[in-house]
């Protein structure tokens, strides 16, 4: 009887150990899957951070290029403005000269008319 009881106790203990081992295996599977998910998430995060850094560098390069182009266009605009101002000034000078010549021609014509009338 004692041997039978010991065998029953031994069987119960073995059953409990099998159940514990099964639970441990399930936990290891869940833990392994979780670890794989976490690794995949970390890899994805690293990839995204790298991609964001590359994009930020591209954005900075684009902004630098754009700023350079804006400055170039501004300088060209200023140079064109100076040329236009100079051209306008020259046109004004020419108008004044034409007006002065026209006044002189008018005076000469009047003078010529007076000479013909008196002559």
Write down the overall mean pLDDT: 92
Strand/helix succession: H
Shape: rod-shaped
Q: Termini, distance in Å?
A: 172 Å
Quaternary status: single chain
**Share of helical residues:** over 70%
Number of helices: 1
Estimated radius of gyration: 50 Å
Task: Report the strand count.
Answer: 0
Tell me what portion of residues adopts beta-strand conformation.
under 5%
Largest sheet: none
Low-confidence stretches: none
Structural class: mainly alpha
Quick structural gist:
This protein is mostly helical.
Helix and strand topology:
Elements: H1 2-118
Can you give keywords for this protein?
1 helix, 119 residues, mainly alpha
Structure description:
- The mean pLDDT is 92.
- The relative contact order is 0.03.
- The chain has one helix at residues 2-118.
- The longest helix is centred in the middle third of the chain and has 117 residues, at 2-118.
- It is built from one helix and no strands.
- The N and C termini lie far apart (172 Å).
- Helices cover 98% and strands 0% of the residues.
- It is rod-shaped, with a radius of gyration of 50 Å.
- By secondary structure, it is mainly α.
């Amino acid at each position: 009887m004692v041997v039978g009881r010991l065998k029953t106790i031994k069987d119960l203990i073995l059953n409990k150990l099998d159940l514990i081992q099964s639970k441990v295996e399930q936990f290891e599977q869940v833990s392994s899957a979780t670890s794989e998910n976490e690794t995949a998430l970390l890899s994805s995060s690293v990839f995204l951070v790298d991609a964001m850094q590359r994009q930020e560098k591209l954005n900075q390069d684009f902004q630098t290029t754009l700023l350079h182009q804006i400055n170039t266009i501004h300088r060209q605009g200023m140079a064109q403005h100076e040329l236009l101002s100079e051209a306008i000034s020259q046109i004004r000078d020419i108008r004044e000269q034409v007006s002065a010549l026209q006044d002189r021609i008018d005076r000469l014509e009047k003078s010529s008319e007076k000479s013909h009338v008196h002559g």
